[in-house]
Each structure stands twice: as C-alpha cells, then as structure tokens.
Amino acid sequence: MVKEVGKEYTFTLWDGKVIVRPKLDMKYLYIEVTSRCNLKCEMCFKQYWEDKEGDMDWDLFLKILDDAEEFPELRMIYFGGIGEPSVHPRFMDMVREVKRRGFALGMSTNGTLLTDKMLREISELGVELVYFSMDTVPTAQNAITLGHIAAAVTADKIRKLVKYREETGTHKPSIGVEVVVTKENYMELPDLARYLLDLGVDSMLVSNLLPLTEEQTKDIVYDGSVDMKPILDELYKIAHSGLYIKLPYFELKTERQCDFDENNVAVVRWDGEVAPCYRFLHTYYEYIFGRKKKVNAYSFGNVREKSLAEIWTSEKYTWFRFTMKNYMYPSCTDCPLVDACDFVKTTDIDCWGNEPSCADCLWSRRIVQCPIPQYNFGKFY
C-alpha cells in the first residue's frame, strides 16, 4: 500500500484548481555512484558536458539507502547515471550493501572492468539485472578498432556471467544489452540480436543516437534518411526466438510517453543532487533534429541536506511529476514557431511556464531510450 505523507498542494490550472496529495510512490531509484568512466565513447554525454567528475562518498551512499527504505513501493535500486559504476573504488561494497538490505539491484555497465571474481559474486549475491553496452558484433575482421575491441571484451564478460548464473541455478542476474543505433551500425542490428541470443542474453534495448555535436547529427536514422522497416521486420522475427527486444520509434510521432515519469523514477547524482531523469543530470548541448539546445542540470534538492522523501514530496517536485504525467507541456519538436522561439534554446523554461522544460525531449518521444526495468514472468528486463 502506498504510504500517505499528509501533505496537500493546491495549484491553479487555467480557470480551475487542482489538489495534489503526494505519496511515497517512487518505484525505481537510480544512483550515479560515479560520473567517471574508463572509456571515452564519442556518443556519450561525458565527452561534452560542463560538469566536474566525482565519486559518491560512502556515507552519502549509506544515507541514500536509509532514505530509500521509506518508500514501500520501491522495486529496484539501479546503479546508472552517466558514469561507469565499476570505476568506483567501493563498487562491490556498494553491491553487497544493497543486497544485504534486501533491495533488488540493477546496473548499467560497459563490463570491461568486471573481473571473473566480481562476475561470480554478482551472480551469487542474486543481483537482479545487469545491462551491458555493446553496439556491434565483435569479429576477427573488425577487432582492430577500439570500439570492436571493447565489444569483444564485453561479450566475454557476458559469456562468463551467463556461466556463473547457470551454476547458481537462479538465472540471476537477467542480462540485457543496450545498443545505440547510428547509420554506421543499423544494418547490423539483426546480426547483433542473433549473436546476443546465442550468448544467452535475455533482452536487447535499442536506443537512437542523441547527437551531442553538429557532426553527429549526420548519423541519426530517425530523420527519414533510412528505411528501417526491413531491419525491424527481422528483429521482430528474432524476438519470437526468446530474446526480448525493446525498440524505439524511428520517426517523430504525436504520442508522448516518458518512461522515467510513468515508472516513478528519481535519479541521485554522485554529489547528492536529485534529478527527475538522466536528461537533467548534467549540463551539456544536444541537437534535436539538427537544432542546437542547451540542457542545464536541474535538481529538486540534495540528499545531503534533506531526506529523499522530503525531496520527492516537495511542492515543486510533486507539481513537476503531475505536469509531466499528464503531459501538460508544449511540443517544441514539431512546433511551427520553433525556428523563431527563444524558449527552445535551453531547457530552463517553456512557453507554458514549466521549469525545467521537457517540451523538446526525445526520451518522451520514445526515440531515445534508457533501461527502465520491467518485471515480467519472474524476471527483470
């Protein structure tokens, strides 16, 4: 049962009033345990943001876990954000502590730093979900490039984790792979899906590239420049063989659905700042169909100063979630005035007065995707 907090906020909405009673109904808590990474992928936010790097300190991490216990509907703690979790010097201590407290645990990783000992322990501890990053099929012909070397290493880590979970007999963790689609690799998607199926992977999450430089805008496949239908038809057939494949949209549609908001997600940055999603975790520039936009980091509070429950049920965060969940914000992406409007230059505020602004967000258009775990048939995907 969702825990009531005894608060009530009244908001003016056009000619009426809306009464919102916040609840402790967070379902997924994402923790960016570090913003550092051992790789330098060109398509990653880290290469272009304005923020300093850092690791979450141990006492802050423990406080976040203490605060998380106040949320009765919390399904999972997820080590995510825009860093590589295993870079943190106490990464395995963090894994052990989350499982010791009885939380379900998921994580995103490139896998390259996970040793055999770590992989075995991750399985023995019963970690529920691990998503690896891989954008290509590693082969002998292409192994000389950096990206394919990393893919080969990641594939080897996946193979070992599959072995260790079979030895435990629990089928934990569920193993997923995140793939970013570009003009360079889109034709390879069916081969990659078949390769992952043979590896023993459970799910494949496909996301489109969010350009962070003007040069990267030439690599997107959702602007009508590529016919994705033959590729998608093949992927649908492979999905019937047992690989769960979550696909994005490959064209702009009217429908909007934010997985972060629909699934009641909060993201805690390495320094304790609480953001509503990955997009507002750091400050950087993005390109929306070729149009440059500055995304400014946005926080509803810092868990060093307030409890997670206080931040979650604060007036501003409550109204933000209500507004987003009911999609009461404009659509800048296909607005006829977009080229003459100053509101679209940053995410600070939109023409309806919402701040921060989600009106240009490609996540809500389901063009860009991140791992928001779903629980089906006894497994997380």
TrEMBL record:
Q: Which GO terms describe its molecular function?
A: 4 iron, 4 sulfur cluster binding; catalytic activity; metal ion binding
What cofactors does the UniProt entry give for this protein? [4Fe-4S] cluster
Provide this UniProt record's keywords sorted from A to Z: 4Fe-4S, Iron, Iron-sulfur, Metal-binding, S-adenosyl-L-methionine
Q: State whether keyword Cell membrane applies.
A: no
Q: Which residues form the Radical SAM core domain?
A: 23-243
Q: Does the UniProt entry include the keyword S-adenosyl-L-methionine?
A: yes
* Highest taxon above the source species: Archaea
A Pfam family? Radical_SAM
Matching PANTHER family, A to Z?
Answer: RADICAL SAM DOMAIN PROTEIN (PTHR11228), TUNGSTEN-CONTAINING ALDEHYDE FERREDOXIN OXIDOREDUCTASE COFACTOR MODIFYING PROTEIN (PTHR11228:SF34)
Q: What is the designated name of this protein? A: Tungsten-containing aldehyde ferredoxin oxidoreductase cofactor-modifying protein (Cmo)
Where does this protein come from, organism-wise? Thermococcus gammatolerans (strain DSM 15229 / JCM 11827 / EJ3)
